[in-house]
Amino acid sequence: MMNYVLLLIYALFPCICAVARFEPISVNDVSVVIRMIKGNNVSSFDMAVEIFDLDRLNVYRTTDLEGTTRDQLFSFDGLTPGTWFAFRIQYQLHYENSEDPQNIFKTKQEIIVRTRDSHFEDHTKINDTIAYIDDLFITKDNIYIGVASVFKDTKKVITVIVPELRCSKGVLKPLAQQMATEKKRVAIVGAGASGLPSIRHALLYDLDVTCYEASSYVGGLWRYREEETECEYKFPDF
């Protein structure tokens, strides 16, 4: 019986993991064509699209669209040749054969592609690779891989790369860095409302706050204690 249950789970796993999303299918020098995939149970959807020009760093166009998943294509025309564009899509799905046919939550997706330099280039080859291997160095125990971005010549576009190594027996990813947990105590010496900003700031960072009311002058001392270290900050008078 357990074998049948496992087979059923494996059979349904692709359906469970399938999430309706968009993909580009054609790109020429002035247009990008996208379609929805993995939307078998979606009857229709509403979407808002923001198009960003990543070379000139401005909003190129915004548009609202409605559609169905019956092999419907969406073409965004009038684009600039040889330019990187980011399509930020926010869409709401409507399901068929469901008790709640309209999903109240909206899904977001970003598609980054580069338009062709010429109309004669192959439209089906999508240039959407923004990171590439720039250097590779192998030693006996380590593999050093240098990764670069197509936006490396500008400081206004930041590319965040999360590396992973796909092997025959699994995927290796770097461990996430966790900040060390420290106990911090704060003593705020002030008067009246002048100490409220300091109290709110301390509580925001989950600090142990002790407040002492002193004289009526504006300002105060903020004494910070962490283990055996003590620092004092004097707020300026307002």
Automatic annotation (TrEMBL):
EC number: 1.-.-.-
Signal peptide positions (record): 1-22
Gene3D superfamilies: FAD/NAD(P)-binding domain (3.50.50.60)
One Pfam family in the UniProt entry: FMO-like
Alphabetized GO MF terms: flavin adenine dinucleotide binding; N,N-dimethylaniline monooxygenase activity; NADP binding
Claim: Flavoprotein is one of the keywords in the record: yes
Family label: Belongs to the FMO family.
The protein's name: Flavin-containing monooxygenase
Organism: Cylicocyclus nassatus (Nematode worm)
